[in-house]
Amino acid sequence: MSSHSAPFSARFEQLDEFDAIIDVRSPSEFAEDHIPGAINCPVLDDEERIRVGTLYRQVSPFEARKVGAALVSRNIANHIETHFLSKPKGWKPLVYCWRGGQRSGSMTVVLGQIGWAARRLEGGYKTFRARVLAELDALPAALTFKILCGPTGSAKTALLDALAAAGEQVLDLEGLANHRGSVLGGEPNSSQPGQKAFETQLWSVLRGFDPARPVWAESESRRVGRLHSPGVLFERLRSGECVRIQAPLTARIDHLLERYSDLIADPVAFNAKLERLAPQHGHMRVAGWQAMVEAGTWRQLAEELVTAHYDPAYLRGGEGLYRRLAEGQELVLSGLDPASLAAVAQELAASSAG
User: Fold this and answer.
1) Which of 107, 215, 264, 293 is deepest in the core (most CB within 10 A)?
2) What would the mean pLDDT of 295-322 be, rounded to a whole number?
3) Residue 23: band (very low, low, confident or very high) from pLDDT cuts 50, 70, 90
4) Structural domains in the chain?
5) Buried b / exposed e along 217-227 (16+ C-beta atoms within 10 A)
6) Residue 54 per-residue DSSP state
7) 3-class DSSP state of 48
8) Residue 5 has pLDDT above 60, yes or no
9) How big is the CA angle at 209 (ends 205 and 215), to the nearest 5 degrees?
10) Which residues participate in catalysis according to the annotation?
11) Which of helix, strand or coil describes residue 41?
12) Does residue 288 have a pLDDT over 50?
């Protein structure tokens, strides 16, 4: 502990020194964003926080503190009985709240009195968030990016997965954003994280990369679903070395039919997503695509979506986003099946190591 740190406090740089990270904010605050690996042990839940805050504003700070103290004490006791009784004497938890104030201070004091080496994060989540934003501006400059480019259906994401399996460093923006990167691309039975949580996940991944080795990513627009990549990172990606994937239309359609099998299994949801294309393609054409959904003519539908929607969109905008696309290596693939992609990933990994 440095001499300028207050007793029972710890700095952001010491995050990795602790056995556990405890977020004592309310469940809604935790759901919006939190330090990676933290567990949520709220000393006030959402309703209790509103109740205490209302007392503070409408009655008096003193009355609010009395009620708050009773609620916090009961909640801390419950967390100790539920989560912490099995912890050994040498357990070292880090506790944080919004600003590193009373909520985290209360939990830290109680855990410390028990005998654990509990510390409160100086500045709380607010300081953590500021550091995440600062490092998202700084970290990309030290990294070398290699970008998989190609139109929709070129198996860029699947090849990224194969590269990761081959031991390469991979930045999977679609995976972090929980979105497949197109108007049809929401992942089944799930939703995207909030922007803050997305940025925290990006920060966590970027800080783990070795700058001496390349980082593979796929060509994306800045927006992935309703989220957007931080500006500095996106500009670094745009300047990355490109690998241009070329694959036959039949192979791309096969891959898309497999990748979007969840939509095929839910025609109602599929047609609802197709409706979003009406402003661009007109209601008559979209109605024709929706009729193909109803008829189950999946290959015909996939081919029309690729040739009439995705490929023209890629030619209009996708090719111009990445500055080094024209000079990029051309990767001609006859098939996009898992075995073929695994073999290609091994070749790319060997060439990047050399």
Assistant:
1) 107
2) 89
3) very high
4) 9-133 (3.40.250.10), 143-353 (3.40.50)
5) bbbbebebbeb
6) H
7) helix
8) no
9) 95
10) 97
11) coil
12) yes
